[in-house]
Amino acid sequence: MPKITKQFIENQTHHPASGQIIYRDDELCGFALRVTQRSKTFIVEKRVEGKNRRISIGRYGQIGIAEARQKARQLLSEMERGSGANWNSNDPMKNVTLSEAFAKYLSVRPLAATTRKSYTYCIETCLSDWLDLPFNLITKDMVEERHRFLTNSPLRNGRGQARANVAMKTLKSVLNFASERYSNDGEPLLKSNPVDRLTANKQWHKKEVRTGVISPLRLPDWYEAVSGFPNQVTRDYLTFLLFTGMRRNEASLLRWAYVDLKAKTINVPKEITKMQRAYQLPISDFISEILTERLPADCNAEWVFPSARTPSKRIATLSHFLPALREACGYDFVIHDLRRTFLTVGARLEIPFHILKSLVNHKIDKEITERYIIVDMEGKRDCIEKITHELIKLTGAKWVRKDALESRCEQQLLRFNPRPEPDA
Fold it and tell me: What is the pLDDT of residues 324-353, one digit of tens each?
């Protein structure tokens, strides 16, 4: 096998249809290139204390060949010592890989489903070539280099500054957890977290706080564009977000089991909320009309806002629809603008902040006086009706009379809970 060079990798290696191919370097024994269907990864292999060890160094394209060869020499030297700090068979905790530490982290930490999904994406996609590496071998230089690589990697919307930050913050949390979890006689396994290098060098990308709202002058155009959109689920979903202020992920995860049209409330379980805190949301007559219209003929239907393509699944993303909607309304809005618009309208109506926070499930400050203020359901209902009426006026929305709505709601509910037949 020849020496692993750029020319060799580009011209003489190929992705297999399945499995993997190992190309071993003839100059540095133990240094190799593992090629799978989708990736080419530098690795080191060595038999240590009677066991074969294999460590991923980094993907080709994300790390240079010279650097990979240098790291391979360092790892092979540590493996050669066998009983050294990183390869002590009598202390298996020190050989825990990043993948194993992350799995334990997920099993212990109570994370929201969306947070769990985000963390998994960061670890398995942005740091996939580190998964087989003992977590205590991740260095500050590796962190700094990967943060720079993720920043400069092209995305559909530009460079990945946000992705780089989130990936490294996720890694920092996992390493802090693993360092304490697999500590040695109470001493953390890591003397310092390598991600702290980014803080010391002030390399974190500054996050721009979004402040976009849909102004009163733009709301009629926005509502007209949404109302004229051919996909009804998208129309109702966006209108629902504006008139409730709910987070988009929480709204997309709503099941009919959470909705009580008779009481005009939505019971949002903590499992689908960002803050892992359940709350009850009153719904206005206007939203009751939308939800009543959405009641499916199939009593076994699960999602309030199902996927347009696959009704058995929930609505997931509007990335295919948003460009057309933005062009139609003449405003480059993002989904979270609807939540900010809801709150802004509420503040303009001088609704108390502690009630606005309660409506959107924000954490209420622990100032002593606010602890004594109990926001009851009817108080919240009055406020959300005020916001709804103001939004109807601003958007020019049309809806049926309340008495007609109640009659229709009663008819729709009978399909799900038919009245018993009278005795003969």
Answer: 888 988 888 889 999 999 999 999 999 988
| Cβ-count burial 276-308 (b if 16+ within 10 Å, e if not) | eeebebbbbbbbbbbbbebbbeeeeeebbbbee
Cross-strand pairs, 40:
35
pLDDT (tens digit, 9 = 90+) per residue, 255-271?
999 999 989 999 999 88
Cα torsion through 247, 252, 253, 258, rounded to 10: 90
Phi and psi, residue 29, nearest 5°: -65, 125
- What is the length of the chain? 424
User: pTM higher than 0.70 for the full model?
Assistant: no
The burial class, CB within 10 Å (0-12 / 13-18 / 19+), for 337 is buried
Q: In 226-249, which positions are buried (b, 16+ CB within 10 angstroms) versus exposed (e)?
A: beebeeebbbbbbbbbbbbbbbbb
By the 8 A CB rule, do 88 and 94 touch?
Answer: yes
